[in-house]
Amino acid sequence: MASTADFRNGMVFKFKDDLYQIVEFQHVKPGKGGAFVRTKLKNVVTGKVIDNTFRSGEKVDEVRLEARTMQYLYMEGEDHVFMDNETYDQVHMTGESLGDSVTKYLKEGIDYKVLFNAGAPLLVETPNFMELEITHAEPGEKGDRVSAATKPATLETGAVVQVPLFVNQGEIIKVDTRTDEYLERVR
C-alpha cells in the first residue's frame, strides 16, 4: 500500500478496478480544510485520461509493471505470438487484448515493449516510429506535386495513413505510430 505522499509521475496503481498511471499530480494545502492531491491519471490499458482528487494520506494499491523487449513472431489463429529476446519464452496475446492501435502496426521480426503485471502480459507498446512499405496507394496526379493534398495509403501491416500525392505504392515511408501520421519517405 502506498499513500498520497508516495505519489510520483509514472507510478501505477489499482483504482476503480483498473490500472492507472499518474501523468501529473499536485499537493494542495488550502488555508481552510484538509490537504488533498489533484491528479491526472491515464488508464494503462485504454489510454483514457481522467482527473481525480485524493484526500491527503489516502491509501492506494501500487502495482509494479515489468517491461520486457519482445519480438513479434506471427499470428496463430486469433492469437499474436511474441518471443522474449533473452529467455526465448513465447507469449500469446489475443488481438482483442492488444487493441486496434497496436495490431495495425504489428510486423514480424520487430521488437516491441510488452508490459507484464504479476507475470501475465498486460499491454504492448509499439515503437514511436516505424518504417513500413506501402502495399496499396492510388497513383498521384501529374501537376499535384506542390499542393498539400493527401491520399490514403495502405501499409504492409494493414494500417491506412494519409500520405502526400507524390508517394507511390512500393515505397517505404516513416510513420508516427502514436498519431498515424506520415513523416517522410525512406530511401
Concise account of the structure shown:
With 187 residues, the chain is mainly beta.
Secondary structure elements and their pairing?
Blueprint: E1 2-3, E2 12-15, E3 18-28, E4 36-43, E5 49-55, E6 59-62, E7 65-76, E8 79-84, E9 90-94, H1 95-98, H2 100-103, E10 111-117, E11 120-125, E12 129-137, E13 150-155, E14 160-164, E15 172-176, E16 181-186
Outline the structure in words.
The chain is mainly β and 187 residues long. The protein is 4% helix and 55% strand. It has 3 domains: 2-62, SH3 type barrels (Roll); 65-125, Beta Barrel (OB fold (Dihydrolipoamide Acetyltransferase, E2P)), CATH 2.40.50; 129-186, Nucleic acid-binding proteins (OB fold (Dihydrolipoamide Acetyltransferase, E2P)). The protein contains 2 helices and 16 strands. It has a 6-stranded antiparallel sheet, with no helix packed on it. The longest helix is centred in the middle third of the chain and has 4 residues, at 95-98. The chain is flat and about 70 Å long. The relative contact order is 0.12.
CATH-defined topology of the largest domain: SH3 type barrels
Catalogue the unreliable spans: none
Could you tell me the number of beta strands? 16
Helix-strand makeup class: mainly beta
Strand content: over 45%
Largest sheet descriptor: 6 strands, antiparallel
H/E element sequence = EEEEEEEEEHHEEEEEEE
How many independent structural domains?
Answer: 3
Q: Gyration radius, to the nearest Å?
A: 21 Å
Annotation field: number of helices: 2
**CATH architecture grouping of the largest domain:** Roll
- Characterize the overall form: flat
